[in-house]
Write a structure and sequence with these properties.
The chain is an alpha/beta fold and 241 residues long. It has two domains: 7-106 and 221-240, Rossmann fold (3-Layer(aba) Sandwich), CATH 3.40.50.1860; 108-218, Rossmann fold (3-Layer(aba) Sandwich). It has helices spanning 16-29, 52-58, 64-76, 93-98, 107-117, 131-135, 138-143, 155-170, 174-190, 204-207, 219-240; strands at residues 7-12, 41-45, 79-83, 104-105, 123-128, 148-151, 196-198, 216-218.
C-alpha cells in the first residue's frame, strides 16, 4: 500500500537516459536491503517536451506547457514531490513551481550541497552545461551568493567539445562522448576551477569512473540524493501539515 504523499515524482525524458539513470542513482543512494525499504517512484519520461536550449536562445517552441502536463500527470499519480533530472528545464523552475502545490527540488541547490560535501564550500569552480543553461546563468544566480565564482567553457570548447559530447550521449554513444567532455573538464581545472559541476544531466553519464584532476559534481547523483533526503524527511513533513 502506497504511503500517501511520499511518492517521488520524476519528470524525466530530457533526455531519456538521464531520467532512467536518475531512478537508478536514487536506488543506489539508499541502503535498503529489500524491495520494501526503497522509495516508491513514478517516472514520466516526457520525451516530447520541446528542446529547452532552442526555446531559451532561439525562440523555439515553448517547453513549459508540456512540462506542466507532465507535472499534472505526476500529481495524479500521487507524487509528493517532483525531481527534474534536466538542468536546462530549471530555467522554467519558477513557473513550474507556481503551478503546483508539490515541492519541486531545484537541481542547483542539490549541486551546491554536493560541492560542500566534496569540501568545496566556495571559490572558483567550473560549470559545464547546455548553451541555454550557461547563457542564462542558471548556476551563477544561485551559486554566486554562496561565495562561488563560476568559470564556463569558451565558445570554441562548447562548439568542439561540450555540444558534440552532449549530442553523443543523446544518441546513446557514451564512448564517443567521454574524451571531449573530459577534455573540457580539464580545461576548466587548468583555469583554476577547484571542482567542475556537470550541469547537464547528459554529461555525467560517460564521465563516471573517469579520472579527473578535480572533483566532478554529478548533478544526476546530487538530485537523486536530494530526492532521497526529501523521502526520508517526508513522514515528519506530512505529520506537520
Amino acid at each position: 500500500m502506497s504511503e500517501a504523499g511520499r511518492i517521488i515524482g520524476v519528470l524525466g525524458g530530457m533526455g531519456p537516459l538521464a531520467g532512467a539513470d536518475f531512478v537508478a542513482r536514487l536506488t543506489l543512494a539508499h541502503d535498503g536491503t529489500q524491495d520494501q525499504d526503497h522509495p516508491e517512484v513514478v517516472l514520466f519520461s516526457a520525451t516530447q517536451v520541446p528542446n529547452r536550449t532552442k526555446a531559451a536562445l532561439e525562440g523555439g517552441a515553448d517547453p513549459l506547457p508540456a512540462m506542466l502536463a507532465g507535472i499534472r500527470l505526476l500529481e495524479q499519480a500521487g507524487a509528493g514531490c517532483i525531481a527534474i533530472p534536466c538542468n536546462t528545464a530549471h530555467l522554467w523552475y519558477d513557473a513550474m513551481q507556481a503551478a503546483t502545490r508539490l515541492p519541486i527540488l531545484h537541481i542547483v541547490n542539490a549541486a551546491a550541497a554536493a560541492l560542500r560535501a566534496a569540501g568545496v564550500a566556495g571559490g572558483t569552480i567550473g560549470v559545464m552545461g547546455t548553451p541555454g543553461t550557461l547563457a542564462l546563468r542558471l548556476y551563477e544566480q544561485r551559486l554566486e551568493p554562496l561565495g562561488y565564482r563560476c568559470l564556463t567553457p569558451s565558445e570554441a570548447e562548447m562548439a568542439e567539445l561540450v555540444i558534440p559530447g552532449i549530442a553523443a550521449v543523446k544518441a546513446n554513444a557514451l564512448d564517443r562522448a567521454r574524451a571531449p567532455l573530459l577534455k573540457a573538464v580539464e580545461s576548466l581545472a587548468a583555469r583554476g576551477a577547484r571542482a567542475v559541476v556537470l550541469g547537464c544531466t547528459e554529461i555525467p553519464l560517460p564521465l563516471r569512473g573517469a579520472g579527473a584532476s578535480v572533483p566532478m559534481i554529478d548533478t544526476i547523483d546530487a538530485q537523486a540524493r536530494a530526492a532521497l533526503q526529501w523521502w526520508l524527511e517526508a513522514p515528519a513533513l506530512l505529520a506537520a501539515q
